[in-house]
Amino acid sequence: IMDLSERTLEKIKKEHIEPTSKWQFRLRSTFVWILIILGLTFVALGFSIIIYRLSESDFDIVVNQGTSLFDYLKFLVPLAWIAFIVLFIILFYIFFRNTERGYRYNGFFIILGGIIISVGIGSILYTFGIAQKTEDIINDNIPDYEETQEGRENFWIQPDRGLLAGEITKV
C-alpha cells in the first residue's frame, strides 16, 4: 500500500498536477445539464412533428386502398427525423451518464426515461401548435425538406385506385 501512495505522490510532483477547483466542476455540471435539456427539447420537437404528421395523415384511406402501413409510414415520417431523434437520444444518454450521479442508473432506463420525457413534452408542443409552426418554418427555410412531403402528395395521385389530388372549386 505504501508503494502505491509513494508512486501517486511522485506522479503528482513529477507532472505538477494541481487540484481542480469546485467552481470548475459546477460549471461543467451546469453545462452538461444545459446540453441534456437542449437535447431533450430537440427530441421532443422531433416527436411533436411526428405526432403532427401522423394526425394529418389519412390512415382510413390507406387501409381501404390496400397500401401497407409500413409503406405509408415511410412517406409520412421522414427518415431524417428518425435519425435526428436517435442521435439526440444517444447524446442524452452520454451526457446523462456524465452527470454527478448518472453512472448509478441502468442505460436502458436512462434511454427509456429520455424517450418518455420527450414524448410527453412533444405531445404538449403538438397540443399548443408548435409542431405545425416548426414544420412550416423548416419547409420555408430548408430547401430539400419539402421533398419529404412529395410522398404524401403522390399517394393521392393514383387514379387507378380511385384517388385524385386537387381542389374542389364547384359542387
Summarize, please.
73% of the residues lie in helices and 0% in strands. By secondary structure, it is mainly alpha-helical.
Structural class label: mainly alpha
Poorly predicted runs: none
Q: Overall pLDDT, averaged?
A: 82
Report the principal-axis shape: elongated
- How many beta-strand elements? 0
Textual characterization of the structure:
The protein is mostly helical and 171 residues long. It is 73% helix and 0% strand.
Sum up the structure in keywords.
elongated, mainly alpha, 171 residues, 73% helix
Q: How are the SSEs ordered, and which strands pair?
A:
Blueprint: H1 2-15, H2 22-55, H3 59-65, H4 69-76, H5 79-97, H6 107-127, H7 130-141, H8 147-156
